[in-house]
Please model this.
Amino acid sequence: MQTARTELHLHLDGSLNIMWAYKKALQRGVIAPDSTFEDFYGLLFSNNGYHSAQSIKKFDLVCDLLQYYEDLYDATYDLARRLNDRGLIYAEIRCASQQHNKKGLSQLEALQAVRDGAEKAMQDLPIRIGIINCLMHKGDSAQFNMKENLETIEVTRQLRGKTVVGLDLAGFENNCDYLEYAPLFEKAREYGIPYTMHAGEMGIGSHILDAIAMGAHRIGHGVNCVQDERYIQALLDAGLTCEVCVSSNVKVDRNYAGHPVRKMMERGIKVTLNSDNMIFSRTDCLNEHNQLRMLGVSEEQLMQCTYNSIDAAFCDAETKAYLRKRLEELLCQ
Model:
């Protein structure tokens, strides 16, 4: 039984087709013209620590490949195609429109490119796609890029519909007081835009409490809820779903068996399983499910993660009804 049918936490820039990325890096002059594929691979996978401020810089390289409309469009279409080939029926793909403005694109044009690539994929393929636009942690306070983050909210409001579905807060989580971002989410609530937030991933479980206080509709990762019973209880009381990305959080300080996801399931937290970054985590949703299957997580638990994904998705009610019907059809095959 294939239980991996949905993705709620997947970053476009971290999930490029690596050979496409290499060729694009040469074409756009992002790397030296004599760089080999092996050189490029080494840049992506240099061992500079995981979930540190330094490791986040690897995203600068792939973002440099996504500075033109056609490249954002092609990358989104290709990712949707690869997900469809893996049997997924729904995915929410994350981009950050403020990260794609180095060559003249506005935030609105960048988000349009991603939306257009997703909509073309949905014309050609049965998979359904939602686009989440990311607010970014940058600098040593929320004020560092407050203007850019406010613009991210505005362009998301302009394009929100069946394809552009919500907001996220991404980047290096530990750079400042999390509650400094509260004004941004007040604006998102004013516009009625649902949002998720990376919280409780990079060592500070109390960020989960901050995310709940700021009205998050879902929690990105949330694995450090196990640091304190209060964090677990807060998730249970709020009924929030956690977008768990197991492979993304096992590279340095814990292995698969030591990952908190099984404890989270046992405590009744709503869990979904996701890839996060298919390049950097060297995974996909099928692998995420298979890794837990090998650790004794039951088929029923894995399937519940998929149902949790549909329930927590930011798509509209009509799309959710379609996804539930499609999932049941697949289970009967």
